[in-house]
C-alpha cells in the first residue's frame, strides 16, 4: 500500500471520524434521520474538507504560526459559503434538509482537526488524499447510521418501503434514535474486533520494572509513576 492509498484507508478504516475517532457528533446525530440526509451531509463535508486541506497545504509556508487557527477558519468559512451557495442554486432540496448544519461545517472538529494535524504539515497531494479518506469515512458513517434509522423508524430506505407500517419503531427517526443506533453499531464493532473508539485494550503493569526500564517500555514510568511506589 503506497502512501496515497494509505491515507484513504486510514480515513475510512483505521481512523474513521465517526466510529473510531468519534468526531463531528453534532451533524452525525442530528441529520441522520434518513440515508439521503446522511449521505448528503457526508458528501458536503468531504468537499469542504478536501478543498480546505488543499488550500491550507498550499499556504502552509505562508501563514504565520501564531495566526494559523484564525487563518484556517477564514479558509474553511469561505469554502463553506461557496458550497452552501452552490447547494442553494443546484440542490435546494438538500440545502433545505440540512439547514443550519451546513454553516456549522465551519466549526466541525474534523475539518479544523485535519487542517491542524495534517494539511498544515504535508504536501498538497497527500493533504487532498487525506481529505478524501476522512471525507469518505465520515460519509460512510453518516450513511450507515441513516440507513439503520430509516429502516427501523420508517420501514423504508431511499423511498423504498421494506417493513410494514405496524412494525415501525418511530423513536429511531427522533433524536434519541441516533444515540441508540450509534451505540448498537459501536457494540457491533467491538464484537467483531473492528477498529473503534471503545475496543482498545489497556496495558497492564508488569511485575518486574527492571526487566523493561532500560528499553523505555515501562508503562508505570511512561505514565509518570515511579517504580518504587
Notes on the protein architecture:
The chain has two domains: 3-191, no CATH class; 199-229, no CATH class. Helix content is 59%, strand content 2%. The chain has helices spanning 3-14, 25-30, 35-58, 68-90, 92-98, 109-119, 124-154, 175-191, 219-222; strands at residues 156-157, 160-161. The chain has a two-stranded antiparallel ribbon with strand order 1-2. Helix 3 packs antiparallel against helix 7. Residues 210-216 and 219-229 have low confidence and may be disordered.
Structural class: mainly alpha
Overall body shape: globular
Count of domain modules: 2
* N-to-C series of helices and strands: HHHHHHHEEHH
Unreliable residue stretches: 210-216, 219-229
**Number of helix segments?**
9
Number of extended strands = 2
